[in-house]
Specification:
The chain is of the alpha/beta class. 33% of the residues lie in helices and 20% in strands. It is built from 17 helices and 21 strands.
């Protein structure tokens, strides 16, 4: 049975394909089309996903479509996939399926958290075997995601896209100053009941907070937040969210998480302190495409076999001839490396010997917003100049936003304390005492660091590169940030890679076995 899943139609549209319980491909529309058209069918994502899976529309037996969506999409699907049954999947049910079915647990609590997917903002499920049972839910405007977005706007960022900046800003403060305020806003019970007295529906900017809220900050209503209060506010919000989510999760030992708030790595880290946690790595709207196919396979068609989620490299890859054609069309000088060993040796030489920053585009594109070693910009932690350049002059990011440290999973324990979700960069670890000076450039707050543990079976080439770096320098760790610029999605094609490379201060580009240097 072949199931095609469509999620995030109104925001962050994506497509996934499952064949007989095996996830073959998943692609976001924004990465392949390089733009989004909310509310319409993600044509580029569908075409690319089917191409990667080597299928045609006639092969599809079922289309699982996540609500909400425009009605004409439903009609279009019936004509585009004439042999397919069309199944509707509720937004939070798709989130829940995306979190539980690929998890390592046979039974678990499942918590889905977002802003207002299909009018719901949260839901708790009891999962066992191949079944999901709804226990409790929460409706907008009682929404953790909405509060987080409001504070994002209050602090001068863009609501709906910059929430991650508030998360990382929160690491610069303890949160004690404004934790009581945000706990009061959240209502103080097991599940949030937002105190609307802290909001003013007539104030259409800065998050819509009321005079009552500003008075608690000793500010006038609508006044710009001073720099001295930005990190304390972010931290107070973050700590309050962590506390209420832990209460919402209940007493179970095993927890699965999805929804936009599942992208909050600090939240996942807080949950890991008391529970066994699995978070779906592409936890936002795009990830509902995965949930759609899992839900249809297990809950609609009653299949006992549960799909697994191995690596997240589910997008397209490009053959050497395709790469060569792009480089030649762009009239670039390049060097072709004959073997994998020579490729890795050349990259390590650039990173460690030449102290360069390299762009590394290999294999299949990752699904989700995080670069896991196939669409990455890399630098050596042993070169302070390259690490400074990485954030400031290449990514143009605020100093509180740090890059990740990639390390072979079997060697991670020597350098970091990190949970199992570090496999997908979905949590935050801690630098062990002997290496705190070494990784100083990547540290968040008090010795926290974004750890990416790399398994050989997930990414053999990247794993080999890390070991080769260790052999050359004594440190099998590379700093890793996403290969994209200026808010664009991850690069997808060789042409995307060339464009980003020549728009940045990256020194060398490795695309497959081709090397381009400035």
């Amino acid at each position: 049975m072949i199931i095609l899943g469509l999620g995030g139609i109104l925001k962050d549209a994506a497509c996934a394909v499952l064949k007989d319980g095996e996830l073959l491909a998943a692609v976001e529309e924004s990465k392949v089309a390089r733009q989004e058209s909310p509310g319409v069918l993600p044509e580029a994502a569908i075409a690319t996903t089917l191409q990667v899976a080597r299928l045609t529309p006639a092969d599809v037996n079922c289309v699982a479509l996540v609500r909400p969506f425009a009605q004409e999409i439903h009609l279009t699907l019936r004509s585009r996939f004439p042999s397919a049954q069309v199944v509707m999947v509720e937004h939070h049910a798709a989130h829940a399926a995306s979190a539980y079915y690929p998890s390592p647990f046979d039974d678990a609590t499942v918590l889905t958290l977002d802003r207002d997917g299909d009018f719901r903002s949260a839901a708790r499920w009891r999962a066992s075997g191949n079944q999901l049972h709804l226990e409790k839910d929460l409706y907008y405007p009682d929404s953790l995601g909405d509060l987080y977005s409001r504070v994002t706007e209050l602090l001068g960022f863009n609501a709906g896209s910059d929430e991650h900046k508030v998360q990382w800003l929160s690491t610069a403060d303890s949160g004690e100053q404004f934790l009581p305020l945000f706990e009061e806003i959240l209502g103080g019970s097991e599940w949030p009941c937002i105190n609307r007295g802290f909001f003013d529906s007539d104030r259409l900017s800065q998050g819509g907070f009321s005079e009552k809220f500003y008075a608690r900050l000793d500010l006038e209503g609508g006044e710009e937040i001073p720099e001295t209060l930005r990190a304390p506010l972010a931290a107070g919000l973050q700590r309050a969210i962590e506390g209420v989510v832990l209460r919402m999760a209940g007493s179970g030992e095993r927890l699965c998480v999805a929804g936009g708030l599942g992208m909050n790595a600090l939240l996942i880290t807080a949950l890991e302190r008391s529970k066994q946690v699995f978070v779906q790595p592409a936890a936002g709207n795009a990830g509902t495409a995965l949930g759609a196919v899992f839900y249809a396979w297990n809950s609609v068609f009653g299949q006992k076999k549960r799909a697994s989620l191995k690596d997240m490299c589910l997008g397209p890859s490009y053959a050497a001839e395709e790469v060569k054609q792009v480089l030649e069309n762009c009239k670039l000088r390049f060097h072709y490396v004959m073997t994998t060993g020579e490729l890795v040796e050349r990259a390590v030489s650039d990173l460690s010997g030449e102290k360069k920053i390299i762009a590394w585009m290999q294999g299949r594109m990752e699904f989700g917003p995080r670069a896991l070693g196939n669409r990455s910009i890399l630098a050596s932690p042993l070169n302070p100049y390259s690490t400074e350049n990485l954030n400031i002059y290449i990514k143009h990011r605020e100093p509180f936003r740090k890059f990740a440290a990639s390390v072979p999973e079997e060697m991670a324990g020597e350098y970091f304390e990190a949970g199992p979700n570090a496999r997908y960069l979905a949590t935050v670890g801690c630098v062990r005492a002997p290496y705190r000076k070494t990784f100083e450039a990547a540290v968040l707050g008090e010795n926290a660091v974004r750890v990416h543990t790399v398994r050989r079976e997930d990414n053999p080439l990247y794993h080999q590169l890390l070991h080769a770096a260790g052999k050359a320098t004594g440190l099998p760790v590379l700093y890793n940030t996403s290969f994209n610029l200026f808010g664009d999605p991850l690069v997808c094609t060789p042409r995307d890679a060339v464009r980003s490379f020549y728009s940045s201060g990256v020194d060398a580009l490795f695309v497959g076995n081709f090397v381009v240097e400035k």
